[in-house]
Amino acid sequence: MKIQLPNFCMGILTLCTFSANAQNLINPGIWQAFTNPLSSTQYPEIRGRLCNFYWRDIQTAPNTWDWTAFDNDLASRTKDGLPVIFMVYVRGPKGDAPDWLYNNGVPKVIIKSNSGTVTGSTPFYADPTYKSYLKQMIITVHHHVETLPVSVRNKIIGVQACFGSTGDYISYGGGQVLPQYNLTQKDFSNLYREFTQYYYDEYKNTNPKIFLLSNPKLKGKDDALWTLKNCLGWLKNGTLGKAFQLNDELDKASWLYDIANKPQAGSYVRMRCEISGGSTLAAWWKKFPYKNMFAVMCYGICWGLDWPNQDNNGIMDPLFDSSFKFFNKYAGQKDPAKSTNAMCALKDGLDASDGVRFPAATYGTVSRTSQQRYKNILNDYVAYGALLEDPNTATLEENDQLNAKGTNDVGWRIFPANYERYLHQLTPNQTSVGYWNIKSADANSMYGRFARGFDIAHNKKAFNFDVDDAFLNNAPLNGRYPVTIEITYLDNGSGSWQLYYDAKNGTDKPSIEVTCGSTNKWKKAIVTLSDAYFNNRGQNGSDLSIRSTSNKNVIFSVIELSRPTNFANAMSSLASASSNDAQILKDQSVKYCNGLFISPNPVTNQFAVELKNHSIIDYIEIYNQAGQLVLHKKTSASRVYIHRNEIGGSSGIYNVKVFSGKTSYATKLTVL
Question: Is residue 318 part of a domain?
């Protein structure tokens, strides 16, 4: 498979070439939102920060500027070396536009609700005087930025162009205004383009580069394409980091996915979105906050989101750490040939617009507004945990769903299956079944909002996976370097499964086998394969497969594949190591080859040696490829930690012998 999402993603856009200096500071991953800066030492998941200002505070009169807070805020957010993106709000609920505008020729537009209540005010965007003052502000702020100390200036990597309410797309926010101030959608689009051009022209020649980050509306395909053609830079999309499984995402993916993931001239458009904005206060979020956060992170990885900005409450909650670390592992890896990680977060998408999977004759007329159709679809999946607690919202727009009163697992024009990045499940609905809202022994686990499992009764008992051809540089891996597979499964029900893979010496080679216990906890089995071939020669054209070995169902959450950070330079001799000799197994239910395992393997620094039966190890001998003894270590422990420096520190393949009582064990160790 040579695509990164199902075949709804189409089109490639011509993007910009970014400077290498700025790219070094992009820091994809979890960014802190606008709140007071937290310690990046105490909260190492933080990769960067946003910094927002108000026009009214900076320019207090037509010719008077106050930079005190501006300078202090930027200094405090960059003092630990992290990058920032800043923005200047020009209109918002607090009256971010300076009042003096209205005394200097700019009309003030009063915004009212449908009932006539005043909800806010804004300058008249189309007024020539307003445009002149706005442009002056953009120029003056930039000129001041260039006077900042180098330690601050060089950490500013982007400026978000703000024109509407906060950093949103330019509009009146859906309110009513006097007839003389009415603007059509075309008018707003033209203003967005005119003002965006102001920012682009001002920052296009900055060095170090300050990129323009634009917000061309949730469904702003035309403005997004115009922006990339005329004002090349980065984008914000308001919902990708707030929620998941949002209506009409198939339509959005048809134009936005390639913008974020398909380069031209070796460059990528970066995207941000903040979760702060109310979605975490909604009933659907509060029901499963930790499961929902993990689903949001998987959604962002699937989309190619670079910066899912988090507020301080989220960052300080230790129960979100695992989700943030998961995202950071994948963040920014947009070039598959250079990426070190691939993943498939397993889920099913119940798309009410799909008249083939859910025919009208069985489920009712294929209509977005037919709540009964949604309910009929749900009925087939209630036994698997699916919910539809707010059917009305399930039929509405993506923004409406952020405030849903309950959990909805049926939607309209939603992704049909998994959230994937370079690792694709083949024919998922024909070989496995979706699960939703799974309760485990750990109520705060991040796993379980979505999953897939065997359905033995319906002969669905295998997961087949294809590693993206582009991830493998469009050639078989052929054991050039080791890959590690991590399989997260629910340890419940006494079912069993085994991993198979396309290997150099076998197209369908068996690997680890796991038997589930009854802890009802999510567990992870990890194995390193040093002889993977990966040319789709496995079962049903797969590179990897997970198959049932019992008559009981097993549920899985996420499958991950990783390779060494220096894989491009990995020694070809690494392929000589047997995959079964290089297992990293973290659960006693796994069958160990020769009763011995080493983890991690391959190793970069320290590794652990342990026996399956947890017997005391008397001594360990390690030999290099020339057969020379490089370590003889006496012990009296069941697990022994060894640093690569103890065996000389050199990369290569080593033979490890372990002695316990009268029994000896042997395996191979790969040192990178």
Answer: yes
